[in-house]
């Protein structure tokens, strides 16, 4: 509740702003920071869930792509992070099927499971991040990937960038 009070105060008070007036994610980001903005992705109005899912997927793709240079394929694995990221972006644009998305997620998850026990666990994180982008629960994808991306300032810029990309 403390976070809500801070947001309400920054907006000029609950009565002035309007108790039922939606608060844009960019304002939450500005007032409370990235962590609260990501949390808000999980709590949108039902009619906004489609747009939220697109934003979350694009954001998760950006985060996964950011850590992708750490990827080193274990012996016998030909999967690349870009394999999954490309499918997820196409899905977000309505150009890939749910089946393609599920296949991409399953492939990335399998690679992550095989990679994480190795010498460099961050290699598995790259695959897990790509799998999260393809997860059926898109809002969870963005929140999960946010944990693994390193730079808060960079994350914030990517959040705004993904919002702009989603709007087209």
Report, as a whole number of angstroms, the end-to-end distance.
34 Å
Radius of gyration: 17 Å
Helix content: over 70%
User: Number of DSSP strands?
Assistant: 0
Our estimate of the beta-strand percent is under 5%
Number of helices: 10
- Give the SSE order as H and E letters: HHHHHHHHHH
Largest sheet: none
Oligomer: single chain
Mean pLDDT: 78
Question: Topology of this protein?
Answer:
Elements: H1 2-10, H2 14-17, H3 25-32, H4 34-41, H5 49-67, H6 81-92, H7 98-115, H8 121-133, H9 138-148, H10 152-167
Helix pairs in contact: 3-4, 4-9, 5-6, 5-8, 5-9, 5-10, 6-7, 6-8, 7-8, 8-9
Description:
- The protein is mainly α.
- It has one domain (50-167).
- The chain is built from ten helices and no strands.
- It has helices at residues 2-10, 14-17, 25-32, 34-41, 49-67, 81-92, 98-115, 121-133, 138-148, 152-167.
- The longest helix has 19 residues, at 49-67.
């Amino acid at each position: 509740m403390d976070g809500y009070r801070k947001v309400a105060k920054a907006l000029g008070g609950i009565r002035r702003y309007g108790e039922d007036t939606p608060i844009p994610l960019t304002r939450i980001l500005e007032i409370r920071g990235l962590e609260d903005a990501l949390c808000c992705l999980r709590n949108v109005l039902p009619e906004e869930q489609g747009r939220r899912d697109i934003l979350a997927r694009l954001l998760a793709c950006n985060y996964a792509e950011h850590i992708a240079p750490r990827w080193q394929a274990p012996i016998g694995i030909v999967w690349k992070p870009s394999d999954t990221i490309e499918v997820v972006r196409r899905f977000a644009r309505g150009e890939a099927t749910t089946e393609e998305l599920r296949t991409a997620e399953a492939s990335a998850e399998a690679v992550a499971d095989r990679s994480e026990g190795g010498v460099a666990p961050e290699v598995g994180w790259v695959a897990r991040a790509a799998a999260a982008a393809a997860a059926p629960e898109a809002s969870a994808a963005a929140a999960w990937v946010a944990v693994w991306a390193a730079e808060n300032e960079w994350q914030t810029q990517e959040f705004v960038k993904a919002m702009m990309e989603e709007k087209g």
